[in-house]
Amino acid sequence: xxxxxxxxxxxxxxxxxxxxxxxxxxxxxxxxxxxxxxxxxxxxxxxxxxxxxxxxxxxxxxxxxxxxxxxxxxxxxxxxxxxxxxxxxxxxxxxxxxxxxxxxxxxxxxxxxxxxxxxxxxxxxxxxxxxxxxxxxx
Length: 138
Description:
- With 138 residues, the protein is mostly helical.
- Helix content is 56%, strand content 10%.
- It has helices at 4-10, 21-34, 46-74, 79-89, 110-113, 120-131, and strands at residues 13-18, 35-42.
- Strands 1-2 form a two-stranded parallel ribbon.
- Helix 3 (46-74) packs across helix 4 (79-89) and helix 3 runs parallel beside helix 6.
């Protein structure tokens, strides 16, 4: 399943199912109450693999978004403005999707406020920005 607590409450979960088609047919009425999307992924265990693939994709997107925020901050962009753009409010790409609403002035993850302390890909993004002449964000 995918969709979190909000999807569960609204009955809009995406449900990935593995198993025999006749077993899915018997369970379908219950599953349709829980989810708006029901995907038969194949044999037993295939739903778990599909969920794992979903989690890999989500983690990858979040990692890339963190890099973009660090890169923008290093170049002097306001993170709040950049978040809006990355969520599709300033362009056609909605890969960032709707994020959890944050109150005005809410802090980003602490690592995004301390780019020099970031590790791995986010740190390399800041290094690339500096080499390209972008001023560091303080």
